[in-house]
Every structure is written in structure tokens, then in C-alpha cells.
Amino acid sequence: MKIDLSQFRQTFLQESADHIASMETGLLQLRTAPDDVELLNSIFRSAHSIKGGAGSFWMKNLAHFTHSLENLLDRMRSLEMRATDEVIGILLQSVDVLRNLLDADPNASPETEMPADAVELDARIAALMPVETDSAAAIPEDARQQASSQQEPQEPAEDAREIVLYKVEFRPDREMFSSGTNPITLLRNLAALGTVSCCHLHTEELPALADLDPEQCYLSWTVELASRCVEAEVREVFEFVEHLAEIRISHSDAAPQTDSLPAQDSTAAPKLAEPSVLDG
């Protein structure tokens, strides 16, 4: 049985177009309020939403370009970088590039090269972000205080954190597929935060084949994850589907019996499912 993902993709494209419009509006407002952290957070969330959906639909160029934007916006909202006229101008150009990438041929290969204008702008964005910067010293004191008051207390460096064993219960609503969300992508993102010792698939609500609706999600998962991430980082994986799922996260104060964890990258994630599973 082949699941038709075209309607889900269309929903994602419409929502992304709305996010791009919100980004453009926010960037225009930023010209007169360059140190408005809440405004920067809003623009960042729009970019983050687009990147997550692009990965689900294998829109590689869109995901890559939006990731670059996300990194720049993250530095800006932490006030490590100023929202200068030059930076805002580049971000407004990025809005046009995002629209073009969003309108790319849906039948094109995921390996299609990124358009030249996107490559050029991506390089300009990278050039704005040196590895080390003393730009924070150039930020007015009142702006730094505003950022400090609106951001959560800084967590200790990741290597200094203790390993925590999390139990994550993820029960998607039946209608999750209609939002264009792939739960397997979320599970992979979760697994990339550490080491998964157990991933239990619950099939109790799976009906007989004759009664199965391919547009409904009948499965749920319980994952045991050993990670140095704080709970807020684990919960952030599900940030944009909290209204589409029941999510419970608990943890034990006792760390698993291990001296270290492997580096956090996607290769450490268990093979929960391959994209081809969705195609029948």
C-alpha cells in the first residue's frame, strides 16, 4: 500500500509560505528595533519550522539554506551579533531565495544542486559569522541586559554535564500525518541527542488491514535515551508537534553505567525506519 504524501507536502508548502511572510514582516520591523529579542526569537522560530519540514520532505537545498539562516539568527537573538543594516539586508534577500527554493520542482532529485543565487547568499551568510568574535563588546549594555532578562539561565558546557537516562513516551494523534509531519524524523532527531538503549514500538491500536486508514497514525513509541542534554533540549525535538501528540518525558537521577557517550550525530541514531517505508 502506497501512502500519498502529496497533500501533506502541499500543507507544508502553504505553512512555509506563511512562515516566510512572517519572517519578512519581522525583518522589516527589525530595522527600527534591532535589539528586540522577542522579534528575533519570532523570526528564528519561523526559520526553524521551515527547516524541520524541509527535512521531512527531503528538500535538501531548502533545509541546508534555512539551517544557515537559523545559525545566523541564533547569534543575533543571543545578541552576539548586531542586526545592522547590512545583516538585515542579507536576511531580506534570503526571504526571496527561500520563496524560490520552496517553489522548486517537486519531482526534482533531492541531489539537485543549489541554485547559484542561493549558493552565493549562503556564502555571504557564512562570512558574517566568524568562528570567534568580540562583537558582544560592541553591543550596548542595555541591550545585553534585555537579552539576559529574556533568556533562560545558561546551561553548563555539554561535556561538563552528567549523563541522564530519559524515558520518552511519544503518542502521536491519529491526524498527525495530515500536518505533513513524519514521526520517524522526530525519533531520529531524538536519537541524535545521545544513545538509545531501547525503542519500543506500540501497535496495540493498529486495526486489521481491512480497517486500516493509511492517512491515520496508529503507532506510538517509548524510547529510553542516555544523553547529556537537559530536559528542555529533549523536549525541543517535539516543539512544533506538541499539539499533535501526547509527549511524556521522565528521567532518573542515576546515570547509566558508562563513562562516556559517543559524539552526538545522526549516525548514532537507531535505524527506526527508512524513507522507503513510506512509499509502500
Throw out a few tags for this protein.
2 domains; single chain; alpha+beta; Four Helix Bundle (Hemerythrin (Met), subunit A); four-stranded antiparallel sheet; 280 residues
Write up this protein:
Mean pLDDT is 77; it is low at 132-139 and 254-280. The chain is α+β, with helices and mostly antiparallel strands and 280 residues long. It has helices spanning 6-30, 37-56, 60-77, 85-102, 116-127, 141-150, 183-191, 231-236; strands spanning 164-172, 195-202, 220-227, 245-252. It has a four-stranded antiparallel sheet. The protein has eight helices and four strands, in the order H-H-H-H-H-H-E-H-E-E-H-E. The chain is 42% helix and 12% strand. The chain has two domains: 6-150, Up-down Bundle (Four Helix Bundle (Hemerythrin (Met), subunit A)), CATH 1.20.120; 158-279, Alpha-Beta Plaits, CATH 3.30.70. The termini are close together. Helix 2 (37-56) packs antiparallel against helix 3, helix 3 (60-77) packs parallel to helix 5 (116-127) and helix 4 runs antiparallel to helix 5 (116-127).
